[in-house]
Amino acid sequence: MRSKPLLGLAALPLLGYAAMCAWLYARQRNIIYVPSATRIHAGLTDFTLERDGVTLRGWVVKAGLPNPVIYFGGNSERIENRRDQLARLLPGRSIFLLAYRGFGASGGEPTESALLGDALALFDHVREQHPGQPISVIGTSLGTGVASYVASKRSVERLVLVAPFDCLVNVAQSHYPLLPMGWIVRDRFDSATHLRGYTGPVMVLRAGQDDVIPAAHTNRLISVLGRPPHVVDLPFADHSTLGSDPALEGALAGFLQADLVRTTEPSVVTGGA
């Protein structure tokens, strides 16, 4: 007679585990995408792109100049704060920054398929505005998943990945090792699959103190590339300070500004404090 209550007690941990999995599945996009700190009035933007009935808004720095660069920001990043930095580092080039759906002044709701489709639409728009000119792409954190997809589908001259990862599912599994993230996560941003065998010029910048993107996930992405990338290690930077590290600025300017001819020799650089 006592076995039934005991069995009920034994089932409680399993029920709690199942409830946690169900909660993560239902709320995952609220966890993956954090746009609240990026919201801005539409009147403060200077560029719009319409896609599927949604108005996406952002900025163009030095419009009309050649050899454009597209920047895809990180999660919760205010991409408008990158304008002055990129203008200083990349003189003589147009720079396009577009807020993701639901971020900045852009409408809509973020999902992986929507963000990737929007990114291709942006690339195609830039190509139409700059026919025959090379287009380089920069991605930071979440934006590396977007940038990697674009590079797999379009002709990108040079690709810069700041704090990249192999696949969002694998990163999530590192943070929640006891949960079946492969079943839970829908928006995967599988850069390792998109860039497998990719042979274009790539620069990877990684922070030695990054506790958001574990080093193993950046290294796995590097391992699938068709040729070794130019790797810049910043041992004293973390995920939030990587973008403002002086060594990053020097590497970014050097990689994108030295010339527009593909190089063949990979290298690894270690930045200072």
Sequence-ordered SSE layout with sheet pairings:
Blueprint: H1 3-32, E1 47-51, E2 54-61, E3 69-72, H2 83-89, E4 95-98, H3 112-129, E5 136-140, H4 142-153, E6 159-162, H5 168-175, H6 181-184, H7 191-194, E7 202-207, H8 215-224, E8 230-234, H9 246-257, E9 267-270
Parallel strand pairs: 3-4, 3-5, 5-6, 6-7, 7-8, 8-9
Antiparallel strand pairs: 1-2, 2-4
Superfamily (CATH H level) name: Alpha/Beta hydrolase fold, catalytic domain
How many beta-strand elements? 9
Q: If you compute it from the alpha carbons, what radius of gyration comes out, rounded to the nearest whole angstrom?
A: 20 Å
Listing every helix as H and every strand as E from the N terminus to the C terminus, the arrangement reads HEEEHEHEHEHHHEHEHE
| Proportion of helical residues | 25-40%
In terms of per-residue confidence, which ranges show pLDDT below 50 for 5 or more consecutive residues?
A: 260-266
Structural class comes to alpha/beta
Mean pLDDT: 90
Task: Give the spatial strand order of the biggest sheet.
Answer: 1-2-4-3-5-6-7-8-9
The biggest beta sheet reads: 9 strands, mixed
**End-to-end separation:** 68 Å
How many DSSP H or I helices? 9
